Amino acid sequence: YWFLFRPVPETSGRVAAPVAKEVVAARDRHGIPHITAQSVEDALFAQGYVMAQDRLWQMDMLRRLATGTLAEVAGEQALEADLEARRLRIGPLSAEYAKRMPAADKALIAAFARGVNYFIDSTRGRLPVEFRVLGYDPKPWSVADTIAVCLQMYRTLTATWRTELLKASMIEAGDADMVEALFPVLEGSEFTPGSNAWAVGGQRTVSGRPIVANDPHLEFSLPSVWHLAHLKAPGVDVAGAALVGVPGILIGRNVRIAWGITNLGFDVQDLYAEQIDTRTGRVEYRGRLEMARGEREVVLVRGGRTVDAALWVTRHGPVFLQEGGTAYSLRWAAAEIEGFGFPILDLNRASNWEQFRAACARFPGPAQNFVYADRDGNIGYQVAGRLPLRRKHKGDVPADGASGEHEWEGWIPFEELPSAYNPPAGLVITANQNPFPARYKYPVGGNFAPRYRADQIGHLLKAKEKWRAEEMAAVQTDVYSAFGKYLAGELVAAYDRRGRGNVSLAPAADLLRNWDGQMARGRPEPLIVALAFQHLRKAAAERASPARGARYEAQMGPAAIERLLRERPPSWFEDWDLTLLRAFVDAVEEGKRMQGRDPKRWDYGAYNQLHLRHPVMGRIRWLGQYFNIGPYPMSGSSTTVKQTTRRLGPSMRFIADLGDDEGFYLQIIAGESGHLLSGHYKDQWKDYYDGRPRRVSFSKPEGVSVLRLQPN
User: Which DSSP symbol is given to 694?
Assistant: First the structure.
């Protein structure tokens, strides 16, 4: 009781607090707080307070992950993560941006921080159990902490430097043209965090008003990275999903508009090979020596050890790593944003397309695709964020830092970023595919997803004449894979032409012959296709770069492999059918080792399992199982609308009909609360797993428990 139940916060009653006027936080049956205040500042104070009630320990972990201070409480296992965060300089950047932020934006985040800190100060004796287990108390929350959490998400969605190194090493050891074919610009990384979002015009809906749907795909976590809320104050009436540690609503709806977001995937990181003397900091640039800036920090490790983190910062950025005798600095768009602002409240207040685009124009990043709809029947699409302009290099491999020939030349102007308003088809769809036109005036590079998800969403939306909001859940959970279906057909065709003598393949071939392309748990065919793809991808990578191909792993895949299979260039393999059969045989043999000799009894869900573990309490023997979720068999793959792997998947599902003033649909993976014994710790899991949308009231929320923050 003392450690587990006592920290569960009081969500009803009266609390004296430093607010100007009374604020009401009424929690509905899902535990979602509906906050009503007489000023925006008081509403954000209350949002900080109730978010800390539910997620304080998670908030502290996120800022520690961002700023490189995890090892202080988690020990040696977190040291490498801390050192990488220090090299990215997220802590110093956050502090600098907090100083330079426009005063109006800073005041809003400060109000949120005051709410967090008031909860900490008033609850010292019964903080979440994780603090007690790890033996420390949280420090006060600050504006810089919120910015650090934002930069951590920026980091998650834009980390391309490893791909640059991988591609460069494969080119060095192999055939450059072949390696290029495995890293197509117009297709993308199958495991890059992504999302689906679409808007359907009123001509395609039962209500006659547009519908917006959004399901961001991120790495799974327990609790969720999202905290749901409804904020109501003069000039603001908005509900949806907030990023933990960040005020306002990032994805959601207000009285007039609704919007969703997906990751753009444009490359905003470049590695530069520097000619630097790491003893003195002298670095060569355009034939001259200049001094890098030296920085030194100390990483505290639980147990008393300290680690010195020394860093050189060149004109391109921090010297991020040294590999093979070469020092690489990292240039990152997040590290050089002028006038770092906070436009989330501008999004929340927007009531039309012009105001919405004005908020997007202030959005610093990470670069995103914004999908929009309003009550007047308009739908739209807008790319937002700071995208570097490269003229003399693509940014896909490390550039020469000494020559000065590979510098960014500013940012692509916002007015020239892809945008659409009321397209004739009445549909706006983004699933991380490349949105830039073929003859775009600026160079384009990045990890854009293959079109499989976007094409399937379009196919499904066009197949029905009129849509209701709740029916969009079937699209969000669709698990048809056009790539899987195509690969299955190629495997069967190769078997029919060349493999009938191999009796061990016959049962698997018969299964694939009639497969409908559904990557569904309980089915053997998806497992056969998934394993065959892995072996085929490895064979192609080894052919392109014999010494390094094994490192290719799963960074790029389906689109590149499908293109090769359709074109079948003899320079890759003399006999493509034989190559397919080898992958087929290897897949079947691997399946037998995993799940027995009879392919008919195989289960894709047993391979594609999800097991969510609480980072601290989930590790306790016998007790931990009660705080974890799973393992659960999962349907979906990297090429299905429901993009699900063992590492990432839909982190939240949102559906809003602008013709429905009373409510919308919103759910996260587990639950609203991070407290282990709260009734809302994992009460959303079953509906999430089964794909049932959860309705949230907007106009008249029913308060199951009501907390009143009263002026003290």
Answer: -
